[in-house]
Amino acid sequence: MVVEEKERLAREIVRRLHEAGYRAYFAGGYVRDLLLGRKGKDVDVATDAPLGEVRRLFPRTIEVGAQFGVLLVVEGGVSVEVARFRTDLGYEDGRHPVDVRFTGPEEDALRRDFTINGMFYDPIREEVVDFVGGQEDLRRRVVRAIGDPDRRFSEDRLRLLRAVRFAANLGFDIEERTFEAIRRHATTVTQVAWERIGEEIVRILTEGGARRGFELLDRAGLLAPVLPEVAALKGVEQSPDYHPEGDVFTHTMLMLGHLDGTTETLAWGVLLHDIGKPACAARVGQKITFYGHCTLGAEMAVAVCQRLKRSRATWERVAYLVRNHLRVLQAPKMRVSTLKRFLAEEGIDELLELVRIDALSSNGDLSYYEFCRRKREEFGREKLRPAPLLRGRDLLELGFRPGPLFGEILRAVEDAQLEGTLGSREEAVEWVERTYGHLRG
C-alpha cells in the first residue's frame, strides 16, 4: 500500500512540475523494475526545477541534501525524493561528491552507476527517456557501467558490491569491461563504511540469487576483503561420507542456493554455520573432524556481524543458529522434557530450516530434521512449555528458603511436568514434600 501511495504522489509531483513548465521524470531503479515487470520498492523524481520552485508547488517539504539539490515532498503520510538533474564534481572519500553542478537530464544520466539504472520515465506521456542504452542492456541481461567503469568505481566504491547485487538478484551477467574494472578496484571496497557494506551483503543474501552473488564476489576478488572468514572456507576438506559434495566452501555455496527471499538471520546462519571449521580441522586416520567448530563459529559469527554493523538482535540470533546447528543430531536421544524445551526455543523454526538446508547440501539425510518436525506436530496437541505447576512463592509457602535449592526444585518439577508424570499443582506439592521435604529449613 505504501508503494502505491508513493507512486501516486510521484505522479502528482511530475504532473505539477510539467504544468509549471519544468521537465520531471521518474528515475533510477524504479524505471528498471518497471521495464522488467517487477514491482518497484521506491520511486524518485528527477527534475530541472530549482528547489525553491518545488517548495512553492508543494507545501510540505523536508531538505535532505539541499547542497546536492535533493529534498523530500511529503503528502498523505508518505514522502518522495525529488532531486535536480546534476553532474558530480569530484569525490573526496570514494563515496560522496565534493560538489555538484545542476544540469539537464542527459548529464544527470551519465553520472549514474549502471545503464540499467540510468534511465528516466515520463509517467504523463508514458515514455522511457534513455541516454545510456539501458533498455538494450535490459534486453541483453547485462550489468554495464555507464561510461568509463574505472571512473565509476573510483567515484563510489560501493558500486563494486552493487554491481554484484544487481547481477545476482536479476540473474544478469556483468559486462566484461565492467567486471574487469571491479577486479582492479576490489581491494578498495573497504574504504566504504562497513555499515553500507553490510547492507549490500544482506541484500545479496536475501533478495534472490545468493549463491550466484557470492560466487561473483569470489571471482571478482571482493569476497576476501569483505568476508575473509568465508573466503577461508575454500580448500577445507571434509569427510566424503558426510560431505560428498566437496570442501566447506562448496558446501556453503550449495546451501546459499537453497535460500529464496529468506530472513536476514537465517541467511547469515547459512553463510556462517561452518565458519569455525578451518580453525578446528583435524585428521584422525582417514576421518576429518571439526570438534568445537560450532562454539568457535558462533563467536566468529558475532564478530562478523558486528564488523558489518548488524543489529544486536541479528547477531544474537545468528550466534544461536551457528552454535546449535548440530544439536539436532542429539534430538532422538533426548529425554522428553529436554526435547520439549529444545523445540520450544525461540529461533527453533529458523534452526530447523538451517538443518534442512544443511542436509540437502551434503549427504541428504533429513531424518533428524523430520524427527524434530514430527515431534513438534505430536507435541502440538499439548503445550511445549505449559504454565508451571509451581512457582517460587509456592515453595515459600511450603517452608523452603530462597537459594540454589529453589531452582533445582522448580527445574525438577518442570521436568516431571514435561515428562507427563505430574499433571496438577496438588500432585506437584505432594511430590516436592516427598522428595525434598527433608531439606526444608
What does this entry look like structurally?
With 441 residues, the chain is of the alpha+beta class. The chain is 51% helix and 12% strand. It contains 23 helices and 13 strands. It has a seven-stranded mixed β-sheet with strand order 3-4-5-2-1-8-9. A hairpin with a 4-residue loop joins strand 8 (120-122) and strand 9. The chain is elongated and about 90 Å long. The mean pLDDT is 89.
Main attributes?
441 residues, elongated, 23 helices, seven-stranded mixed beta sheet, two-stranded antiparallel ribbon, single chain, alpha+beta
Give the helix/strand layout.
Blueprint: H1 2-19, E1 24-27, H2 29-36, E2 44-47, H3 51-57, E3 61-65, E4 70-75, E5 78-84, E6 86-91, E7 97-102, H4 105-110, E8 120-122, E9 127-129, H5 134-140, E10 142-143, H6 149-155, H7 158-170, E11 173-174, H8 176-185, H9 194-206, H10 210-219, H11 223-226, H12 228-231, H13 248-256, H14 264-272, H15 277-280, E12 282-284, E13 287-289, H16 293-307, H17 312-324, H18 336-343, H19 348-360, H20 367-379, H21 392-397, H22 404-419, H23 425-436
Parallel strand pairs: 2-5, 10-11
Antiparallel strand pairs: 1-2, 1-8, 3-4, 4-5, 6-7, 8-9, 12-13
